[in-house]
Structure to design on (244 residues):
DNA sequence: CTGCATCCCAGCCGATACTG
DNA sequence: CAGTATCGGCTGGGATGCAG
């Protein structure tokens, strides 16, 4: 019922691939995961997603907003306050992206071991 | 039980982030999805993942092999034949990555509409 | 505080040519 | 067929400075 057989990410020219390129991205995964519990202002997002630069966070949020995954709320205050929140569409992506982060955390030891073995054989 | 609270991808220096960086990638998502149904040789993978260049496919497979997600099987034949297959660890990642591709296909119309709206307002 | 503008570097990625 | 090597363009991404 929710199938769209006419779209296929494995086809180079399919527009869905441009969407995949945005969501299959480490910064997107971390930002969307961080927004899963509710609204966050820019500076809190910056500290939650440790190590992200201001430029990259801005760019990532702007693209997510463009794709309709994140909404932006500006408050007319001094100093300025801007909060970001997942849209309903963005929420449907939260679990899948969170799953990637969870996978990385849960299997990191196996991955590190595999890397050691691989590098030793070279 | 399978929890590893000591690892957190949101921490910049956590090694799990290096793993996330590899799996949260459009080429990884497509290659792992393509390998979900079983072994594929290099050339078949190249045509299945439409538009991928030989260099990028080689690089992606090499990194996936290094992280223990993909195994490589070489046949002593002429012409050469090399097949790639998901490891048990790689299989645990298949569903999560497939979910991203499915999401992109199922929601592309909403995303395209959002982009139009966003771009029109600029 | 937010975020734009700029500069600049590193890495991704594609195209091509060449080997076993 | 399955690579490797090389080159070059493009983009991601960090640092800094400035404006609202």
């Amino acid at each position: 019922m929710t199938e769209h057989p006419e779209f296929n990410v494995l086809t180079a020219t399919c527009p869905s691939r441009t969407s995949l390129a945005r969501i299959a991205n480490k910064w997107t995964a971390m930002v969307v995961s961080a927004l899963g519990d509710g609204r966050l202002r820019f500076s809190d997002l910056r500290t939650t997603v440790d190590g992200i630069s201001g430029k990259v966070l801005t760019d990532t949020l702007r693209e997510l907003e463009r794709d309709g995954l994140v909404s932006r709320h500006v408050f007319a205050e001094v100093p300025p306050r801007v909060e970001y929140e997942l849209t309903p569409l963005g929420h449907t992506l939260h679990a899948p992206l969170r799953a990637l982060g969870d996978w990385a955390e849960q299997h990191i030891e196996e991955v590190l071991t595999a890397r050691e073995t691989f590098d030793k054989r070279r």
In short: The radius of gyration of chain B is 17 Å. Chain B has a mean pLDDT of 95. Chain B touches chain A through 57 residues (CB under 8 Å). DSSP finds five helices and three strands in chain B.
